[in-house]
Write the C-alpha cells for this entry.
Amino acid sequence: MLRFLERVHERGLSRTGRWIADEERRQAEQRQGEQARPSEPDWFLEFGLKQDSAPVSVHAGGCWNVAKRSRGVPRDAALRALAEGVAACPQCRPNAELGYLG
C-alpha cells in the first residue's frame, strides 16, 4: 500500500512540475515578446476618412486621442505638417513639444 501511495504522489509531483515548467515558458515568451516590440513613435499624423486624404492633425506619441487612421512619423515630418497648416491636437499639444510657434 505504501508503494501505491508513493506512485500517486510521484505522479502528482510530476504533474506539478509540468505546470511550473509551462508557466515559466509562458512568462519567458511574454517577456521576449515585450522586449521585441518596436517602440512607439514620438509623433503621429492622423489622416481623414478617405484613403487618399491629407493629414488632419498632428499628435505627440502616447496621446490618448490618436485614431486608428494615424501613422507614426519622424520629428521633421511632424514639424513640416504643422508648418503646412495641419492642426495640432489640442489634448497633447505637439506644437509645444516640438517648439513650433507658428
Observations:
- The chain has two domains: 1-37, 43-98.
- The radius of gyration is 26 Å.
- The beta strands are 43-47, 55-60, 70-73, 87-88.
- The mean pLDDT is 91.
